[in-house]
Amino acid sequence: MMDYLNRELSWIDFNERVLAEACSSAVPLLERLKFIGIVSSNFDEFFMVRVAGLQELYKSGHPSDESGGLSPETLLKGIVQKTRRLFDIQEAVLNTEILPQLKTQGLIYRKPEECSKVQQRFLEDFFYRHLYPIIKPQLSDDEQALADSVANVRLHIGFLLSDDAGKQDRLAIVPVPEVPRFVFLSPDGGVAPVKKVEFVLIDELIRYFGGAFFSGCRITGTGIFKINRSASMTVDDSSDDGFIEALEEVLIRRRYSFVVRMTSTHESPAFIKRMSELFQLDEKDVYLSEAPIGLSSFAKITEIDGFKRLRNEKWKHFAHPAFPSDGTLWDSIKAGDILLHVPYQSYKPVIRFLSDAAEDPAVMSIRMTLYRTSKSSPVVRALVDAAKRGKQVTVFVELKARFDEERNLGWVKRLQKHGVRVVYDLPHLKVHAKLLLIMRREGLGEQGYLHLSTGNYNDTTARLYADISLFTVNPRMIADAQIIFSRLCGKYTPENPHYIITAPEALKRTLLEHIEREIDFARQHKPARIVAKMNSLSHPELIAAIYKASQAGVRIDLNVRGICMLIPGQRGISNNVRVVSIIDRYLEHSRIFYFENGGNPEWYLSSADWMPRNLERRVELLFPVLDKQNQLLLDYFFSVYFADNVKAFEMQPDGSWHRKTLQQGQPPVRAQEAFHRFFEQQAAN
Questions:
Q1: Alpha carbon distance 25, 28 (integer Å)
Q2: Residue 323: other Cβ atoms inside 10 A
Q3: Per-residue pLDDT band at 192 (split at 50, 70, 90)
Q4: 641-664, pLDDT tens digit by residue?
Q5: What does DSSP say about strands 170-175 and 156-162: parallel, antiparallel, or unpaired?
Q6: Which of 179, 89, 82, 94 is nearest to 129 (CA)?
Q7: Which end of the chain is more exposed for a tag (fewer CB within 10 A), N or C?
Q8: Residue 517 dihedral angles phi and psi, to the nearest 5°
């Protein structure tokens, strides 16, 4: 019997649950297409980071830290086996269900060769007018230079060209321009009617007319493809060189790093063989597709006008009743701690909180952390505005947030340009904590206003991710926040935060102590229970502690969206542990923890999952929810999460996941829908 599941294989299981939404006939068609795109994007990142890292370990002969006892070679084989199965399911559901059913609903995907003569004339004109002038085929006798020219994840079209008998075909590669991927048609080649929309893909259009680039040559093989390059390398933040320069060097190296995987159309075996040789890929590293390549871009087609019936019913983001519709928020926050649950509730109070601070003459300073934020961030605009008005603005921007490094680097330069003090280099640690502290001159002194969150300061993902944040003026937590910011800015402080628990210093120890405390209460036959919601659970010490608590009689309910290495229901090990996972229209991102504490319950929110990276290699926060009404709200959330029998999966004692089903006479409970109705009623009262 296994005590632990493997981290990587558990991550693939999570994506199987995501893919189940794409396979479900109960989900609207365009939402199913969106889930297909999410899975595709998730696997791109997985191969670039996790699989690339494992391949490097395998080549070096070192074991993986979170392998669950598997050698890198065995693990890589397991990853390929599970990934290919999901890849085949994804292909089948897209080609045999989603695209055909969309066609019957009037949203029709066509290949150029399937179009009418009128449509093909339109496409030819479109190609020569809009695409041909901006495309630069890469054709080189130096095939290494050609390989290096292929950008990570971007779509490309390859052509094998023959001009001399007996000579090896030359290889040409055409990068697909970064323009809208979809070309819309109608039966007459003009503007498409409302009830029927036909479209072709730019990449397939370029391949269809590709001969225009190679006059005098015969095309002997072709394919549309994308590659995943290794992005496992990170900046050496202990270097004596400048941190930004070192980061920029890593970003350049990623452009030419080794290729982990290629996904390609399958029509030309000669082309596939040539590309495999070019990128030094084995057969297991090449995924041949019947479907279009680059499915993550299909999220754009799901937004098309006129197909409302094929999407989820729109859910409003409700105003929080504690905040006034106009005026500043200071008095509301001073009246009592406020929990904000996005996206059910609008994210606007967070933006207002910052913009109020920027404009208010009484505000003296703003300090905050930024891990990921949106492309045109109102958060950054407010910080710049505050600095321009002469306020002290200090921001810690985490430049090591993978795949957001370039964007965050841009924010650093913009903020610095406008007088914001930016801190960005904390050696060996990522700053994943989310906190915002505003100090305001009131009466004869200063009043602090604090915002702490389970999610990023990102107004875009706040409409898609379920996160909870806390507004407070609690003086003890304000004092803790000041200590945390001082340390982030490199100032030594002898005091330690007391109410806000931080990683890596104390968070893991505190969690282990709280679990041990529940064990002691259970042995004394006092109330003992743990309820926890998180994105991932993979820390061996925490898992061992939960097993120990289960064996002591502590009842443990876990809601884990993604990776879960713990196995519940194992006789003599985890009988008292239940694990559920909910996949629905919003990404479950909040971290909520409850400890019964012998009848004196404690509630916490956190930025951290229970993973080695979060508890040992990141600055994270665990903060208490002290207000009784807010605790009741969190208790309600938990009751609904664990009652869900529509979108919830439950892990079995063999490590597999089964979707929960309605029992006879049982009413359906869909957690996210229940929360939406709850906040709708709250806003109406």
A1: 7
A2: 21
A3: very low
A4: 999 999 999 999 999 999 998 888
A5: antiparallel
A6: 179
A7: C
A8: -65, -40
Residues serving a catalytic function are 432
Residue pLDDT, tens place only, 1-46: 458 899 999 999 999 999 999 999 999 999 999 999 999 999 999 9
What pLDDT was estimated at residue 68?
59
Residues 259 and 331: their CA atoms lie apart, in Å, by 56
Q: What is the CA radius of gyration of the chain?
A: 27
Q: Are 112 and 211 within 8 A, CB to CB?
A: no
- Tokens (6 digits) for 518: 């529940």
Q: How far is it, in rounded angstroms, from Cα 21 to Cα 93?
A: 11
Does residue 504 have a cis peptide bond before it, meaning omega lies within 30 degrees of 0? yes
How many CB atoms lie under 10 A from the CB of residue 640? 17
**Nearest in space to 606 (alpha carbons), one of 511, 517, 527:** 511
Would you say 395 and 368 are in contact if contact means Cβ atoms under 8 Å apart?
A: yes
Read out DSSP for 456-519?
-S-TTGGGTEEEEEEEE--HHHHHHHHHHHHHHTT---S---SSSEEETTTHHHHHHHHHHHHH
Residue with tokens 């709708």: 680
- The 10 Å Cβ neighbour count of residue 227 is 25
Is the whole-model pTM more than 0.85? yes
Residues 440/392, Cβ–Cβ less than 8 Å: no
| Nearest Cα residue to 337 out of 507, 439, 445, 476 | 476
> What is the spatial distance between Cα 585 and Cα 587, in angstroms, rounded to a whole number?
7
Give the 3-state secondary structure of residue 237. coil
Token representation of residue 628: 């009784």
Q: What pLDDT digit, counting tens, does each position of 69-94 carry?
A: 678 889 999 999 999 999 999 999 99
For residue 467, what are the contacts with CB-CB under 8 A and spacing of at least 6?
341, 342, 453, 454, 455, 589, 590
Q: Which residue intervals of 162-287 are DSSP H helices?
A: 202-208, 243-255, 269-278
The single-letter code of the amino acid at 223 is: G
> Cα–Cα distance between 345 and 466 in angstroms, integer?
10
Grouping H, G, I as helix, E, B as strand and the rest as coil, residue 229 is: strand
